[in-house]
Amino acid sequence: MVPEALEVLARSEVVMGYTLYVELIEDLLEGKEVHSSGMRKEVDRCRDAIDHASQGRRVALVSSGDAGIYAMAGLVLDLCRERGLTVARAETGSLSRGADFRLQVIPGVAAFNAAASILGAPLMHDFAAVSLSDHLTPWSLIEKRLEAAALADFVLAIYNPRSKARPHLLDEARRILLRHKSRQTPVGIVRRAMREGQFHCLTTLGEIPMEEVDMQSVLLVGNSQTYVWNGWMVTPRGYLDKYDLDGARKASVKK
Fold first, then answer.
1. Which of 48, 53, 92, 193 could disulfide-link 101, Cβ–Cβ 3.0 to 4.6 Å?
2. Whole-structure pTM over 0.70, yes or no?
């Protein structure tokens, strides 16, 4: 957790979040009013957090990774917009005239950042992130995004890859990616990144061990230049194509 998040959490009166995430920080919650709930309760959590904040209370809404990436920051703003609330930026220092409360989105380490640090340097060039969860996004749209990312040769971070309710969707995603990527494309699997029980492995797009993948996993699928060296997954930025090993710029020869 970043220092700013710790400071905000310490100043908060009320802490809300998904049960698993709240349990991970329970040692920081002494003396706090804590509200936790399970999956599919995201709207209720955000609505309750807004209600508490509107009453003048300091509220911390806990997300994993980064609150603005597949997390709760967007839903909070969605609900405030639907309810016609005015939300001021926390950095203004005081509540602006007419504002219902102040909001600060604290940056965190996104799952693809944590996973990349464990694997080596797979995100050194352009990349895209796609969630395979079709709970909120139609699978037909997810298919289009996978196809577009593969066709453009992006490195791809795959979130929510395989659940008990949707065990087949990762295989479907792989089938789409294989239309444009080699079976030998490096793939890194990281489960429970930076947490107890962390697991990672390197494999290929053609040989993904499905049994090692769950909803706490992130897959990083390389591009056409990604390679594995001494157990590290690397996507080169292109420096060695442009510069000699001593740092001198290579000459460009054109006919």
1. 53
2. yes
